[in-house]
Hints:
Distance between the termini: 57 Å
Strand order of the largest sheet: 2-1-3
Helix content: over 70%
Radius of gyration: 21 Å
Number of strands: 3
Structural class: mainly alpha
Number of helices: 11
Amino acid sequence: xxxxxxxxxxxxxxxxLAYDLTMEPLIFGLFLFIYLVTILGNLLxxxxxxxxxxxxxxxxxxxxxxxxxxxxxxxxxIPNMLKNIYTRDQSxxxxxxxxxxxxxxxxxxxxxxxxxxMAYDRYAAICHPLNYTVIxxxxxxxxxxxxSLVISIANSLxxxxxxxxxxxxxxxxxxxxxxxxxxxxxxxxxxTLINYIxxxxxTFIFGGIPIFGIIFSYTQIVSSVLKISSLRGRYKAFSTCxxxxxxxxxxxxxxxxxxxxxxxxxxxxxxTVSYMMYTVLPQMLNPFIYSLRNKDMKxxxxxxxxxxxxxx
Length: 312
């Protein structure tokens, strides 16, 4: 296939998972297990929040939205990867690739925005406890969620539509197990300057603002907690942030790894592992982090599991 516009483009090839065919059943079973655990764990979180009246608070409302974004992001990448492993066909259509890249970008940004909203919720609860119900009212929480969706959809659509202007040459092999926008743009044989400017600008704005919001929130939280005289009071205040901090560290730590791998030339195996740490691992571990470190969530999950067990 020679240079040409997108209308002559048929397929990309996802070559990130290079493995011995004898390992195929093990790899297929491993990722199927990861996907099922991710879906089940996050569905339990969402169901527990909906069914338990004690969890009808902004913090758990944001948590349920985070779990929904985790489900959507995992469903965007893993099922197609399982299909490729099962059929031994690494190809993905041009349209399918851009659609997948668009959804991955969208749900990843939704997660980032929701994590920032959760940090602001903890800031309001710890730094302004008397005005917490006024600040984090239902209307304001709805606006934050709606705003995160609008920003994420607009950003992902704009960036993916800009890819339509690019031409692609013979090399259409992506060193990943899913289509990621920056990696797709690297394969273009036409001018990609505008695309890269847009990517870096969007990353700086839509990635930087949530990170800045999280850092600012926790700076104020630490300052307020240190003013508490009793050690028990300090521990209680910090304990409400433990789960969120763990999830933030996991998500953004993996995101930094992806950025480093994209910025420098590394082996395809390292690139694949870094993207797997970003789009697979956090989504599976988030329900465990919140259920094991949060007493209210743990109790709600036990109640839910007990009700389900009684049905059988």
